[in-house]
Amino acid sequence: MGEEPARAAPRRAAPEPWEEPGAQPILRVTGVSRRYGPVTAVDDVSLDIHRGEVFSLLGGSGSGKTTLLRMLAGFELPDAGRVEIDGADMTGVPPYARPVNMMFQSYALFPHMSVERNVGFGLVQEGCPRDEIARRVRDALDLVQLGELGGRRPNQLSGGQRQRVALARALVKRPKILLLDEPLAALDRKLRERTQFELVSIQEKVGITFLIVTHDQEEAMTMSSRIAIMDQGRIVQVGTPLQVYEHPRSRFVAGFIGMANLFDGPVQSAAGGIVTLLSADCAAPLSAVDARAWQAGQAAAIAVRPEKITVGRSEPAAGINRVFGTIRDIAYLGDASVYHVETAQGRRISATRPNLRLADELPFTWGDAVWLSWTPENAVVVGE
Ligand code: ADP
Ligand code: MG
């Protein structure tokens, strides 16, 4: 055997494009706003997206996602700010002259045209030669695995097949960026999950940058290189799925992406990378790892994911966060169970426990007194 290195090298690929200083983004949005009367639909949004990303705009209904997408496509003009695609300013550039294509939520297929003619429509408009159209349409249909169905009409297709026709039509013009507005919303759950993987594998084959609008956090987490979370027209956080899940910066993001137990209270101390906070919901102060400079007395919250909490009968060791309580409710989900534990202060905390073994009974039941515990590394401090 060869000698083991003293420390394993970190398993890390080349820096991601958004981490490279000076990398030229394929899309740069700077200070873009759009108002409709009293409503500010998009509020001072700035964003860089890099070549080859599958980037998601994630937010609740009315958060401004579609409006932002329409401004990138040129269907809507910003009141302020600038959009640049591949280094070129898009101000004054009409939609048809922009190197982007939009796949609409409704698919907007022509019902009287065959699949082939739907897919080739944009190329015909461009005056592309016949044989090139035929070739590109065939390639696009093969890519979305509809090679056999080119002669059908949209109403002779399933919902999933129509979705793929719309995708082929958007890809056939080889845009620099493909804008997809809720591309999977019309599909049922199983098909949606399968299509998420298909979309990503198609993106990897064609290399076109995808910008996907969704309100579905699981979809965004599964598909994206990075996610921008939108709330009331603003982007509140941008990061990889792991970053936004494990390090939410605000209460909103912590609660929007997955579940989080939030403990409010003034900061008691912040030193040596550990923040301690006094919450009225627990008997003892809570700690979390955080290197920022918090002031004593400052309002903050600690967020803890349910799966980071251990449920046990015996008192945990000192030095970690521990809360005593009573099991009030159990949600058995099959693969895991969620325990709702009430503290003496009347606060309910959710803790998830994977059901690792086949068993006829759960290890805890309603009314059991239990200790919840988690380490400071497994909690984060969030601002307002
Ligand atoms: P999302 O796609 O995130 O659901 P939208 O971008 O469609 O959000 O809408 C953001 C806000 O702007 C909403 O309050 C919506 O009512 C408003 N809005 C969008 N389009 C128009 C419009 N054409 N006229 C008036 N208000 C609009
Ligand atoms: Mg929308």
Automatic annotation (TrEMBL):
Its EC number is 7.6.2.11. GO terms for molecular function: ABC-type polyamine transporter activity; ATP binding; ATP hydrolysis activity. InterPro entries: AAA+_ATPase, ABC_SmlMolc_Importer, ABC_transporter-like_ATP-bd, ABC_transporter-like_CS, Mo/tungstate-bd_C_term_dom, P-loop_NTPase, PotA-like, Transp-assoc_OB_typ2. It is an enzyme of class 7 (translocase). Residues 7-16 have a biased composition (Low complexity). It catalyses: ATP + H2O + polyamine-[polyamine-binding protein]Side 1 = ADP + phosphate + polyamineSide 2 + [polyamine-binding protein]Side 1. The keyword DNA damage does not apply. The complex is composed of two ATP-binding proteins (PotA), two transmembrane proteins (PotB and PotC) and a solute-binding protein (PotD). This is Spermidine/putrescine import ATP-binding protein PotA. The lineage of its organism: Bacteria, Pseudomonadati, Pseudomonadota, Alphaproteobacteria, Rhodospirillales.
